Amino acid sequence: MNYQQIIAELKENVLYITINRPQKLNALNKEVLSELADAIANAQTNTEVSVILLTGAGEKAFVAGADISEFQNYSLEEGRQLAHDGHSKVFNAIEQSSKPVIAAINGFALGGGLELAMACHIRIASDNAKLGLPEVTLGLIPGYGGTQRLAQLVGKGLAFEMIFTADMITAQKAEQVGLVNYVVPQEQLLQKAEELIAKIKQRAPLALASAVRAVNAGFNSQVNGYQIEIEEFGKCFDTADFKEGSSAFLEKRKAIFKGE
Question: Which contacts qualify for 39-46: CB closer than 8 Å, 24 or more apart?
Answer without folding.
Answer: 39/1, 39/3, 39/6, 39/8, 39/15, 40/90, 40/93, 40/94, 40/97, 40/101, 41/93, 43/15, 43/97, 43/99, 44/97, 44/98, 44/99, 46/10, 46/15
